[in-house]
Amino acid sequence: MEPDAVSLTACVHCGLCLPACPTFRVLGDENDSPRGRLYLMKAEEQNRLTSSAALRTHLGRCLACRACETACPADVPYTRLLERTRATLTESRPLSRVGSRMFLWLLTGVPSRPLYGVLRLARRLGFAAVAGRLLLGRIGAAARALAASAPAPSAFAVSHLGAPREPEPDGPSWALLEGCVTRGLFSHVQTATRRVVVERGWREVALPGSTCCGALHAHAGHREDARRLARCTIAAFEASGADRVVSDAAGCSAAMKEYGHLLADESGWAERAQRFADRLRDVSELLDGAGRAADQTEPAQMTRDTARGTNETARGPARVAYDAPCHLLHAQGIDQAPVEALRTIGATVGFSIEPLSSSSECCGGAGTYGLRLPGISRRVLDRKLDEIQAGGYDAVVTGNPGCIMQIGAGLRERGDLTPVLHPVEFVPRAASTWASAAPGALSDE
């Protein structure tokens, strides 16, 4: 069921959410904290606001990073309340609603395939990198984000490895939710994801008819569009007959694990949605135990220079920073598994993994937030960029495409070309020295 007025009164006003909130930290306004936004939502519910302008402004500034939910001792369902209120506000402004839907349709609907084809070409030809250096404002930021989405340097490239082993013919089946932005700009990540899962002995089946998961629509207040896309995704999974569905975008997997709530009031879909959510896995969950070190007579070595793709004399093992996507850490509760898996991989390949002290804090990406509110987005990101540059890392790893583009774009704006990668891009490098691991029981994954 949707959160109601009772959920709005669950906040005990303790203030523990305030230091966890990125917009409160940079803006210092109580109305830009979870507690302040809940107060505004409650006032709206009780018809105590003479205008919804303040509510719209302060809710629009929320990154929906869910760090407040991790900090909250009362388990207030903040994000569900936020999305419900945003949906109400969106419905009250027809012209704005139409413009927002058209923008999302461009990113996730029928036009997205040719659009991403043009963007990939601009990225490949170097236009994105040049535009990112020369242009200011939103266009320059978007160009830098596009440039940051490029495939990893050769030290991590899947194409430099042999073919992965054949999946077990009687192994558990899985289907990859390719999505929209990930499919359009991160096919190299999806190639690496397939290798990770195949190394577990799982056999892939096609997922026809799947499109966007609806995460962007839910965050923007287009709840009915999000529900429609959720139904399409669930139906595609059921038609595939797969035992598991895997996503390599933390924002998407977090949204899909909420399908049981999203469709809770829809007859015929509530149970199907929950079954789907129960069988969904973020690929970061599958890194832990995906392989084990084998005979290393000639172990791979990733030096600090090969990590950056240079030909200089090696300067020792690469140092890699780990940043946890908000929708992996706070929304899904996946904390140590990716770090421990990367440490195992690093011991095989020759790099060290170091979680950032700001790893639990939002990078400011939040889907389209960086395009809507670039100033606030950048202020949220600055602390993380300062830490990365002060640490002198050779690469940064994070498990969500939006975070990869946000952090990569911020570094590029500072003239720093440190690569920002998805965790699965490290795994193929080590896969050639791994023996096959037993697939394990699906219920234990």
In words, what does this structure look like?
This protein has helices spanning 5-8, 22-27, 34-45, 53-60, 67-71, 78-91, 94-108, 112-124, 127-134, 137-148, 181-185, 187-198, 215-220, 223-240, 250-256, 259-262, 270-278, 283-287, 304-308, 326-329, 336-349, 369-372, 374-391, 401-413, 427-431; strands at residues 173-176, 203-204, 244-247, 280-282, 292-293, 318-322, 351-355, 395-397, 420-421, 434-435. The protein is built from 25 helices and 10 strands. The strands form 3 sheets. Strands 2-1-3-4 form a 4-stranded parallel beta sheet. A 4-stranded parallel beta sheet has the order 7-6-8-9. A two-stranded antiparallel sheet has the order 5-10. It has 445 residues and is α/β, with parallel strands linked by helices.
List its salient traits:
4-stranded parallel β-sheet, 51% helix, 445 residues, alpha/beta, 25 helices
In short:
Helix content is 51%, strand content 7%. The chain is of the alpha/beta class.
N-to-C CA distance: 28 Å
Structural class: alpha/beta
List low-pLDDT spans.
157-162, 289-307, 309-315, 430-445
CA-based shape: globular
Cα-based radius of gyration, to the nearest Å? 22 Å
- Number of helical stretches of at least 4 residues: 25
Q: Main sheet, how many strands, which sense, barrel? A: 4 strands, parallel
Strand order of the largest sheet: 2-1-3-4
Give the beta-strand count.
10
Q: Report the mean per-residue pLDDT as an integer.
A: 83
What proportion of the residues form beta strands (DSSP E)? Answer: 5-15%
Which bin fits the share of residues in helices?
40-55%
